[in-house]
Design brief:
Chain A is built from 14 helices and 14 strands. Chain A has 385 residues and is of the alpha/beta class. Chain B has one domain: Archaeosine Trna-guanine Transglycosylase, Chain: A, domain 4 (Roll). Classes of the chains: A alpha/beta (385), B mainly beta (102). At the A-B interface, helix 6 and helix 10 of A face strand 7 and strand 9 of B.
Protein backbone atom coordinates (compact mmCIF):
# COMPACT_ATOMS: atom_id res chain seq x y z
CA UNK A 1 0.00 0.00 0.00
CA UNK A 2 1.07 3.58 -0.43
CA UNK A 3 0.42 7.18 0.54
CA UNK A 4 1.08 10.63 -0.87
CA UNK A 5 3.93 12.41 0.86
CA UNK A 6 6.51 15.14 0.48
CA UNK A 7 10.10 14.06 -0.16
CA UNK A 8 12.71 15.69 2.10
CA UNK A 9 16.43 16.13 1.32
CA UNK A 10 17.41 13.86 4.26
CA UNK A 11 15.41 10.96 2.82
CA UNK A 12 12.47 11.33 5.20
CA UNK A 13 8.92 11.76 3.94
CA UNK A 14 6.51 14.40 5.19
CA UNK A 15 2.74 14.01 5.23
CA UNK A 16 2.26 17.76 5.63
CA UNK A 17 4.27 20.55 4.10
CA UNK A 18 4.53 23.35 6.62
CA UNK A 19 7.14 25.94 7.42
CA UNK A 20 7.75 25.63 11.15
CA UNK A 21 7.95 28.90 13.07
CA UNK A 22 9.82 27.76 16.16
CA UNK A 23 10.21 29.94 19.20
CA UNK A 24 13.56 29.21 20.86
CA UNK A 25 12.53 30.61 24.27
CA UNK A 26 9.30 31.52 26.02
CA UNK A 27 9.90 35.28 25.56
CA UNK A 28 9.99 34.88 21.78
CA UNK A 29 6.57 33.20 21.62
CA UNK A 30 4.60 36.31 20.72
CA UNK A 31 6.58 37.14 17.59
CA UNK A 32 6.48 33.49 16.47
CA UNK A 33 2.73 33.50 17.10
CA UNK A 34 2.22 36.73 15.11
CA UNK A 35 4.14 35.40 12.12
CA UNK A 36 2.31 32.07 12.11
CA UNK A 37 -1.05 33.85 12.42
CA UNK A 38 -0.33 35.93 9.34
CA UNK A 39 1.51 33.64 6.94
CA UNK A 40 -0.57 30.75 5.55
CA UNK A 41 1.37 27.52 5.30
CA UNK A 42 3.29 28.04 8.51
CA UNK A 43 2.84 26.19 11.80
CA UNK A 44 4.01 27.63 15.13
CA UNK A 45 5.87 25.77 17.85
CA UNK A 46 5.50 27.73 21.08
CA UNK A 47 6.50 26.64 24.59
CA UNK A 48 7.51 27.94 28.03
CA UNK A 49 11.13 26.75 28.17
CA UNK A 50 14.61 27.92 27.17
CA UNK A 51 15.70 30.28 29.94
CA UNK A 52 16.25 30.26 33.70
CA UNK A 53 16.71 26.51 33.74
CA UNK A 54 19.45 24.14 34.80
CA UNK A 55 22.03 23.26 32.17
CA UNK A 56 20.72 19.69 31.97
CA UNK A 57 17.23 20.99 31.21
CA UNK A 58 18.53 23.49 28.64
CA UNK A 59 20.17 20.52 26.92
CA UNK A 60 16.75 18.82 26.71
CA UNK A 61 15.19 22.04 25.35
CA UNK A 62 17.91 22.47 22.70
CA UNK A 63 17.78 18.84 21.60
CA UNK A 64 13.97 18.82 21.51
CA UNK A 65 13.69 22.01 19.43
CA UNK A 66 16.39 20.78 17.03
CA UNK A 67 14.48 17.51 16.61
CA UNK A 68 11.11 19.24 16.26
CA UNK A 69 12.63 21.32 13.47
CA UNK A 70 13.70 18.14 11.68
CA UNK A 71 10.22 16.61 11.73
CA UNK A 72 9.44 15.36 8.22
CA UNK A 73 6.24 17.43 8.05
CA UNK A 74 8.33 20.63 7.98
CA UNK A 75 9.74 21.79 4.63
CA UNK A 76 11.71 24.54 6.30
CA UNK A 77 12.06 26.39 9.58
CA UNK A 78 12.09 29.96 10.80
CA UNK A 79 13.61 30.25 14.27
CA UNK A 80 12.38 33.14 16.39
CA UNK A 81 15.01 33.95 19.00
CA UNK A 82 15.15 36.52 21.78
CA UNK A 83 18.96 36.71 21.69
CA UNK A 84 20.08 36.02 25.25
CA UNK A 85 18.29 32.71 25.90
CA UNK A 86 19.90 29.65 27.45
CA UNK A 87 18.84 27.50 24.53
CA UNK A 88 21.72 26.80 22.13
CA UNK A 89 20.15 28.46 19.07
CA UNK A 90 23.24 28.04 16.88
CA UNK A 91 23.18 24.29 17.46
CA UNK A 92 19.47 24.09 16.63
CA UNK A 93 20.09 26.04 13.42
CA UNK A 94 23.06 23.82 12.45
CA UNK A 95 21.29 20.54 13.17
CA UNK A 96 18.21 21.50 11.16
CA UNK A 97 20.35 22.85 8.30
CA UNK A 98 22.28 19.55 8.23
CA UNK A 99 19.08 17.82 7.06
CA UNK A 100 19.09 19.99 3.92
CA UNK A 101 16.08 22.09 4.95
CA UNK A 102 16.16 25.86 4.64
CA UNK A 103 16.47 27.36 8.12
CA UNK A 104 16.37 31.09 8.90
CA UNK A 105 16.43 33.11 12.08
CA UNK A 106 15.15 36.41 13.42
CA UNK A 107 16.40 37.85 16.71
CA UNK A 108 14.22 40.17 18.78
CA UNK A 109 17.00 41.83 20.79
CA UNK A 110 18.72 43.13 17.62
CA UNK A 111 16.13 45.82 16.93
CA UNK A 112 12.93 44.96 18.73
CA UNK A 113 9.91 42.79 18.13
CA UNK A 114 8.36 44.91 15.38
CA UNK A 115 11.50 44.71 13.27
CA UNK A 116 11.86 40.97 13.97
CA UNK A 117 8.19 40.55 13.01
CA UNK A 118 8.66 42.44 9.77
CA UNK A 119 11.74 40.42 8.85
CA UNK A 120 10.06 37.19 9.91
CA UNK A 121 6.95 37.81 7.82
CA UNK A 122 9.02 38.28 4.67
CA UNK A 123 11.23 35.27 5.39
CA UNK A 124 8.25 33.03 6.20
CA UNK A 125 6.47 34.15 3.04
CA UNK A 126 9.50 33.28 0.90
CA UNK A 127 9.94 29.91 2.63
CA UNK A 128 6.27 29.00 2.09
CA UNK A 129 6.55 29.96 -1.58
CA UNK A 130 9.56 27.65 -1.91
CA UNK A 131 7.83 24.81 -0.02
CA UNK A 132 4.67 25.09 -2.10
CA UNK A 133 6.64 23.95 -5.13
CA UNK A 134 7.38 20.55 -3.58
CA UNK A 135 5.00 18.12 -5.23
CA UNK A 136 3.51 15.24 -3.27
CA UNK A 137 4.61 11.83 -4.50
CA UNK A 138 3.48 8.29 -3.91
CA UNK A 139 5.51 6.48 -1.25
CA UNK A 140 5.42 2.88 -0.07
CA UNK A 141 3.80 2.51 3.36
CA UNK A 142 7.11 1.25 4.75
CA UNK A 143 7.93 4.99 4.94
CA UNK A 144 5.22 5.59 7.55
CA UNK A 145 6.25 6.78 11.01
CA UNK A 146 3.27 6.62 13.38
CA UNK A 147 3.22 7.76 16.99
CA UNK A 148 0.68 6.26 19.39
CA UNK A 149 -0.79 7.65 22.58
CA UNK A 150 -3.69 7.19 24.97
CA UNK A 151 -5.34 9.76 27.16
CA UNK A 152 -8.58 10.50 28.94
CA UNK A 153 -8.77 6.75 29.50
CA UNK A 154 -11.78 4.85 30.72
CA UNK A 155 -12.75 1.18 30.71
CA UNK A 156 -13.26 1.17 26.96
CA UNK A 157 -9.64 2.28 26.39
CA UNK A 158 -8.17 -1.04 27.53
CA UNK A 159 -10.98 -3.06 25.97
CA UNK A 160 -11.33 -1.47 22.58
CA UNK A 161 -9.37 1.56 21.42
CA UNK A 162 -5.93 0.66 22.85
CA UNK A 163 -5.96 -2.89 21.39
CA UNK A 164 -7.24 -1.49 18.08
CA UNK A 165 -4.41 1.06 18.00
CA UNK A 166 -2.01 -1.76 18.91
CA UNK A 167 -3.31 -3.75 15.95
CA UNK A 168 -2.52 -0.75 13.74
CA UNK A 169 1.04 -0.70 15.11
CA UNK A 170 1.46 -4.35 14.16
CA UNK A 171 0.22 -3.62 10.62
CA UNK A 172 2.54 -0.60 10.25
CA UNK A 173 5.51 -2.64 11.49
CA UNK A 174 4.69 -5.72 9.40
CA UNK A 175 4.62 -3.45 6.34
CA UNK A 176 8.12 -2.24 7.18
CA UNK A 177 7.20 1.05 8.82
CA UNK A 178 7.94 2.61 12.18
CA UNK A 179 5.89 3.10 15.35
CA UNK A 180 6.74 5.12 18.43
CA UNK A 181 5.13 4.91 21.83
CA UNK A 182 6.03 6.06 25.35
CA UNK A 183 4.26 7.46 28.41
CA UNK A 184 6.69 5.79 30.79
CA UNK A 185 4.41 6.43 33.77
CA UNK A 186 1.95 3.93 32.37
CA UNK A 187 4.51 1.17 31.98
CA UNK A 188 4.54 0.76 35.76
CA UNK A 189 3.38 -2.74 36.57
CA UNK A 190 3.69 -3.89 32.96
CA UNK A 191 7.34 -3.09 32.25
CA UNK A 192 8.32 -6.77 32.47
CA UNK A 193 6.18 -7.49 29.40
CA UNK A 194 7.77 -4.67 27.44
CA UNK A 195 11.23 -5.79 28.60
CA UNK A 196 10.50 -9.31 27.30
CA UNK A 197 9.76 -7.80 23.89
CA UNK A 198 13.08 -5.91 23.74
CA UNK A 199 15.46 -7.01 20.98
CA UNK A 200 18.37 -7.28 23.41
CA UNK A 201 19.17 -7.34 27.11
CA UNK A 202 20.56 -3.81 26.95
CA UNK A 203 17.28 -2.52 25.48
CA UNK A 204 15.32 -4.48 28.12
CA UNK A 205 17.49 -2.90 30.82
CA UNK A 206 16.82 0.56 29.40
CA UNK A 207 13.06 -0.04 29.63
CA UNK A 208 13.33 -1.11 33.28
CA UNK A 209 15.66 1.82 34.00
CA UNK A 210 13.35 4.53 32.63
CA UNK A 211 10.40 3.18 34.64
CA UNK A 212 12.50 3.07 37.80
CA UNK A 213 13.78 6.62 37.19
CA UNK A 214 10.27 7.97 36.55
CA UNK A 215 9.03 6.35 39.75
CA UNK A 216 11.97 7.68 41.78
CA UNK A 217 11.44 11.22 40.48
CA UNK A 218 7.81 11.11 41.62
CA UNK A 219 8.78 9.74 45.03
CA UNK A 220 11.57 12.34 45.38
CA UNK A 221 8.88 15.03 45.08
CA UNK A 222 7.18 13.58 48.13
CA UNK A 223 4.62 11.49 46.36
CA UNK A 224 3.97 7.86 45.59
CA UNK A 225 2.85 7.54 42.00
CA UNK A 226 0.83 4.48 42.88
CA UNK A 227 -1.04 6.22 45.65
CA UNK A 228 -3.19 7.98 43.10
CA UNK A 229 -2.89 5.49 40.31
CA UNK A 230 -5.27 3.88 39.55
CA UNK A 231 -7.17 7.02 40.43
CA UNK A 232 -10.56 7.14 42.11
CA UNK A 233 -12.08 7.61 38.68
CA UNK A 234 -10.21 4.61 37.30
CA UNK A 235 -11.42 2.47 40.21
CA UNK A 236 -14.99 3.67 39.76
CA UNK A 237 -14.63 2.64 36.13
CA UNK A 238 -13.58 -0.88 37.11
CA UNK A 239 -9.78 -0.73 37.11
CA UNK A 240 -8.52 -2.49 40.23
CA UNK A 241 -4.70 -2.18 40.25
CA UNK A 242 -1.91 -0.24 38.51
CA UNK A 243 -0.91 -3.46 36.76
CA UNK A 244 -4.34 -3.67 35.19
CA UNK A 245 -4.25 -0.04 34.09
CA UNK A 246 -0.75 -0.31 32.63
CA UNK A 247 -1.52 -3.62 30.92
CA UNK A 248 -4.46 -1.91 29.25
CA UNK A 249 -2.27 1.02 28.27
CA UNK A 250 0.70 -0.82 26.78
CA UNK A 251 -1.40 -2.82 24.32
CA UNK A 252 -1.59 0.32 22.17
CA UNK A 253 2.04 -0.36 21.21
CA UNK A 254 1.09 -3.67 19.61
CA UNK A 255 3.01 -6.93 20.00
CA UNK A 256 6.17 -6.61 17.93
CA UNK A 257 9.79 -6.46 19.18
CA UNK A 258 11.01 -3.19 20.70
CA UNK A 259 14.13 -1.99 18.89
CA UNK A 260 15.36 0.73 21.21
CA UNK A 261 14.56 3.32 23.86
CA UNK A 262 15.20 7.02 23.26
CA UNK A 263 15.37 9.97 25.60
CA UNK A 264 12.81 12.76 25.47
CA UNK A 265 13.44 15.04 22.49
CA UNK A 266 15.71 12.63 20.64
CA UNK A 267 15.13 11.87 16.98
CA UNK A 268 14.67 8.17 16.29
CA UNK A 269 17.04 6.44 13.89
CA UNK A 270 16.11 3.31 11.98
CA UNK A 271 12.86 1.42 11.48
CA UNK A 272 10.64 -0.67 13.70
CA UNK A 273 9.04 -0.15 17.10
CA UNK A 274 10.59 2.35 19.51
CA UNK A 275 9.94 3.76 22.97
CA UNK A 276 10.55 7.37 23.86
CA UNK A 277 10.94 8.08 27.58
CA UNK A 278 8.26 10.62 28.37
CA UNK A 279 5.44 11.60 30.68
CA UNK A 280 1.90 10.67 29.68
CA UNK A 281 0.53 14.20 29.60
CA UNK A 282 -0.64 15.11 26.10
CA UNK A 283 1.11 18.43 25.29
CA UNK A 284 4.54 17.13 26.35
CA UNK A 285 4.13 13.68 24.87
CA UNK A 286 2.88 14.85 21.46
CA UNK A 287 5.98 17.05 21.30
CA UNK A 288 8.11 13.96 22.06
CA UNK A 289 6.44 12.14 19.15
CA UNK A 290 7.00 15.08 16.78
CA UNK A 291 10.62 15.34 17.92
CA UNK A 292 11.10 11.60 17.44
CA UNK A 293 10.03 12.03 13.82
CA UNK A 294 6.40 10.87 13.78
CA UNK A 295 4.40 12.00 10.76
CA UNK A 296 1.02 11.09 12.23
CA UNK A 297 -0.19 10.39 15.79
CA UNK A 298 -2.90 7.89 16.68
CA UNK A 299 -4.62 8.87 19.90
CA UNK A 300 -6.77 6.40 21.81
CA UNK A 301 -9.26 7.95 24.21
CA UNK A 302 -12.19 6.93 26.38
CA UNK A 303 -13.59 10.11 27.88
CA UNK A 304 -12.53 12.14 24.84
CA UNK A 305 -9.81 14.78 24.55
CA UNK A 306 -9.39 17.66 22.11
CA UNK A 307 -5.60 17.85 21.64
CA UNK A 308 -3.94 18.15 18.27
CA UNK A 309 -0.51 19.37 17.29
CA UNK A 310 0.53 22.32 15.10
CA UNK A 311 2.03 20.29 12.24
CA UNK A 312 1.47 16.60 13.02
CA UNK A 313 -2.04 15.26 12.35
CA UNK A 314 -3.55 13.55 15.41
CA UNK A 315 -6.22 10.91 14.74
CA UNK A 316 -8.54 10.32 17.71
CA UNK A 317 -9.98 6.86 18.19
CA UNK A 318 -12.47 5.91 20.88
CA UNK A 319 -14.21 2.70 21.90
CA UNK A 320 -16.81 4.65 23.85
CA UNK A 321 -19.93 5.26 21.72
CA UNK A 322 -21.21 7.93 24.13
CA UNK A 323 -17.97 9.90 23.77
CA UNK A 324 -18.12 9.55 19.99
CA UNK A 325 -21.64 11.01 19.93
CA UNK A 326 -20.91 13.68 22.52
CA UNK A 327 -17.71 15.00 20.90
CA UNK A 328 -18.27 14.89 17.13
CA UNK A 329 -15.92 17.86 16.67
CA UNK A 330 -12.97 16.01 18.25
CA UNK A 331 -13.18 12.26 17.73
CA UNK A 332 -12.28 10.88 14.31
CA UNK A 333 -13.20 7.21 14.69
CA UNK A 334 -15.27 4.81 16.78
CA UNK A 335 -14.21 1.18 17.22
CA UNK A 336 -16.47 -1.57 18.52
CA UNK A 337 -16.34 -2.37 22.22
CA UNK A 338 -15.47 -5.99 21.42
CA UNK A 339 -12.57 -4.83 19.24
CA UNK A 340 -10.15 -6.06 21.88
CA UNK A 341 -9.89 -9.56 20.55
CA UNK A 342 -10.03 -11.90 17.58
CA UNK A 343 -11.30 -11.02 14.11
CA UNK A 344 -12.96 -7.82 15.36
CA UNK A 345 -9.58 -6.53 16.47
CA UNK A 346 -7.97 -7.27 13.11
CA UNK A 347 -10.82 -5.58 11.25
CA UNK A 348 -10.64 -2.52 13.50
CA UNK A 349 -6.87 -2.33 13.02
CA UNK A 350 -7.21 -2.50 9.25
CA UNK A 351 -9.96 0.12 9.19
CA UNK A 352 -7.88 2.54 11.28
CA UNK A 353 -4.82 1.79 9.14
CA UNK A 354 -6.74 2.88 6.03
CA UNK A 355 -7.58 6.11 7.86
CA UNK A 356 -3.89 6.59 8.73
CA UNK A 357 -3.02 6.24 5.03
CA UNK A 358 -5.83 8.65 4.08
CA UNK A 359 -4.70 11.23 6.66
CA UNK A 360 -1.07 10.76 5.61
CA UNK A 361 -2.18 11.47 2.04
CA UNK A 362 -3.83 14.73 3.04
CA UNK A 363 -7.20 14.01 4.64
CA UNK A 364 -7.65 16.51 7.48
CA UNK A 365 -8.27 15.27 11.03
CA UNK A 366 -10.94 16.82 13.24
CA UNK A 367 -8.27 18.61 15.30
CA UNK A 368 -6.61 20.01 12.16
CA UNK A 369 -9.88 21.34 10.77
CA UNK A 370 -10.75 22.83 14.13
CA UNK A 371 -7.27 24.32 14.50
CA UNK A 372 -6.91 22.69 17.93
CA UNK A 373 -3.43 22.00 19.27
CA UNK A 374 -1.43 25.21 19.12
CA UNK A 375 -0.12 24.95 22.68
CA UNK A 376 2.28 22.02 22.89
CA UNK A 377 4.42 21.36 25.95
CA UNK A 378 8.12 20.75 26.41
CA UNK A 379 9.10 18.43 29.25
CA UNK A 380 12.05 19.21 31.52
CA UNK A 381 12.91 17.82 34.95
CA UNK A 382 14.36 20.55 37.11
CA UNK A 383 13.24 23.78 38.73
CA UNK A 384 12.79 27.13 37.00
CA UNK A 385 15.61 29.16 38.53
CA UNK B 1 -25.26 0.53 20.44
CA UNK B 2 -26.41 -3.03 21.02
CA UNK B 3 -23.76 -5.45 22.14
CA UNK B 4 -23.92 -9.10 21.28
CA UNK B 5 -21.73 -10.03 24.23
CA UNK B 6 -22.53 -9.03 27.80
CA UNK B 7 -18.95 -9.60 28.96
CA UNK B 8 -15.54 -10.20 27.47
CA UNK B 9 -12.58 -12.48 28.22
CA UNK B 10 -9.47 -10.85 26.78
CA UNK B 11 -7.03 -13.77 26.91
CA UNK B 12 -7.37 -17.54 27.18
CA UNK B 13 -5.29 -17.52 30.39
CA UNK B 14 -7.61 -15.05 32.11
CA UNK B 15 -9.57 -16.06 35.20
CA UNK B 16 -11.71 -12.92 35.13
CA UNK B 17 -14.08 -11.40 32.58
CA UNK B 18 -15.06 -7.74 32.12
CA UNK B 19 -18.73 -6.76 31.95
CA UNK B 20 -19.75 -4.91 28.78
CA UNK B 21 -23.08 -3.99 30.36
CA UNK B 22 -24.44 -3.77 33.89
CA UNK B 23 -25.08 -7.36 34.96
CA UNK B 24 -27.73 -8.15 37.58
CA UNK B 25 -27.00 -10.57 40.43
CA UNK B 26 -27.99 -14.08 39.47
CA UNK B 27 -27.91 -13.45 35.73
CA UNK B 28 -26.22 -15.98 33.50
CA UNK B 29 -23.53 -14.82 31.10
CA UNK B 30 -22.27 -16.76 28.11
CA UNK B 31 -18.67 -16.08 27.21
CA UNK B 32 -16.38 -16.88 24.35
CA UNK B 33 -12.90 -17.40 25.80
CA UNK B 34 -10.77 -17.80 22.70
CA UNK B 35 -13.20 -20.25 21.09
CA UNK B 36 -14.01 -22.00 24.37
CA UNK B 37 -17.60 -21.32 25.40
CA UNK B 38 -18.15 -20.63 29.10
CA UNK B 39 -21.31 -20.04 31.08
CA UNK B 40 -21.00 -18.11 34.33
CA UNK B 41 -23.74 -17.12 36.76
CA UNK B 42 -22.77 -13.86 38.45
CA UNK B 43 -23.34 -13.87 42.20
CA UNK B 44 -23.49 -10.09 42.62
CA UNK B 45 -24.37 -7.05 40.54
CA UNK B 46 -21.42 -6.30 38.20
CA UNK B 47 -21.31 -2.74 36.86
CA UNK B 48 -20.25 -2.02 33.27
CA UNK B 49 -16.47 -2.16 32.94
CA UNK B 50 -16.00 -4.12 36.17
CA UNK B 51 -14.80 -7.71 36.55
CA UNK B 52 -16.13 -11.05 37.74
CA UNK B 53 -14.37 -14.36 38.28
CA UNK B 54 -14.58 -17.22 35.80
CA UNK B 55 -13.28 -19.83 38.24
CA UNK B 56 -12.50 -20.38 41.91
CA UNK B 57 -9.45 -18.35 42.93
CA UNK B 58 -7.70 -19.31 46.18
CA UNK B 59 -6.81 -16.67 48.75
CA UNK B 60 -3.41 -15.33 47.62
CA UNK B 61 -3.92 -16.73 44.15
CA UNK B 62 -3.22 -14.71 41.01
CA UNK B 63 -5.94 -12.68 39.33
CA UNK B 64 -5.27 -12.81 35.60
CA UNK B 65 -6.44 -10.36 32.91
CA UNK B 66 -4.80 -9.69 29.54
CA UNK B 67 -3.06 -13.05 30.21
CA UNK B 68 -1.02 -11.39 32.99
CA UNK B 69 -1.21 -11.18 36.76
CA UNK B 70 -2.99 -7.95 37.72
CA UNK B 71 -2.99 -8.68 41.46
CA UNK B 72 -3.63 -11.30 44.14
CA UNK B 73 -6.85 -12.37 45.79
CA UNK B 74 -7.10 -11.27 49.44
CA UNK B 75 -9.88 -13.80 50.07
CA UNK B 76 -11.08 -16.88 48.24
CA UNK B 77 -13.10 -15.83 45.19
CA UNK B 78 -15.73 -18.08 43.62
CA UNK B 79 -16.81 -18.27 40.00
CA UNK B 80 -19.24 -15.45 39.29
CA UNK B 81 -18.04 -13.27 42.20
CA UNK B 82 -17.38 -9.58 41.76
CA UNK B 83 -13.59 -8.97 41.53
CA UNK B 84 -12.32 -5.53 42.51
CA UNK B 85 -10.42 -3.55 45.16
CA UNK B 86 -12.34 -5.29 48.01
CA UNK B 87 -10.77 -8.69 47.20
CA UNK B 88 -7.69 -7.94 45.06
CA UNK B 89 -4.42 -6.15 45.88
CA UNK B 90 -1.59 -5.05 43.67
CA UNK B 91 1.47 -7.31 43.69
CA UNK B 92 3.65 -4.37 42.84
CA UNK B 93 5.31 -2.38 45.59
CA UNK B 94 2.64 -0.17 46.99
CA UNK B 95 3.23 1.65 50.23
CA UNK B 96 0.92 -0.78 51.97
CA UNK B 97 -1.18 2.13 53.18
CA UNK B 98 -4.13 0.89 51.19
CA UNK B 99 -3.56 -2.76 51.89
CA UNK B 100 -1.30 -3.35 48.92
CA UNK B 101 1.24 -6.15 49.15
CA UNK B 102 4.91 -5.24 48.88
Amino acid sequence: MSFLGYPRPDGSVGVRNYIGVISTVSCANDVAHWIAQQIKGTAPFLHQAGCGQLRSDLEIVTRTLASVGQNPNLAGVLLVSLGCEGTDVDRIEQEIAATGRPVKKVVIQKAGATVALNEGLLIAQALVSEASQIRPQEFDDSQLVVGVKCGGSDTTSGLASNPAVGAVCDIVLDNGGTCIFGETTEFLGAEHILARRAVSKSVADKILKIVDAMEKRAIACGGDMRGGNPSAGNIAGGLTTIEEKSLGAIVKGGTRPIQNVYEYGERIQGKGLFIVDSPGREPEFLTALAAAGAQVALFSTGLGVPQGFPFMPVIKVTGNPVTFQRLPDHIDMLVEMTAGKGSGLKASGERIYQEVLAVASGKQTKAEILGYGNFPGLYTFGPII
Amino acid sequence: MELKEKAIVLNEKDNVATALADLEAGSTVELDADGKLLTVKVTERIPFGHKFSLTHIEQGGPVIKYGEVIGRATTAINAGDYVHVHNVVSTRGSTGAEGGAE
